[in-house]
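Thread title: Can someone regenerate the structure for this chain?

I was given the following input by a collaborator and told the matching structure tokens would be attached. They weren't. Posting the sequence so someone can regenerate them.
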Amino acid sequence: MLAIIGILAVVIVIIAVEVPRLLRGQLIKELWAFSVLLLFGTALSIAEALHIWIPTPMDWMIVVYKPVYDFFETWIM
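Best answer:
Regenerated them for you:
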């Protein structure tokens, strides 16, 4: 629980620093991109703090290439 509070505290500080700059510069598209990426990163950080398994890109590569590897392994051996 302490980790989640720490994550949310850091996110609040980041928002307090960056959002006024983006609004002052009228950078609305950048603000949307910033918000989406910050939300995504916050969600992943909280999931990691709660010890929820999150697949990595390597896991997806293994799923895709494992059948190919198995085919060549049986063909060569």
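The mean pLDDT is 92.
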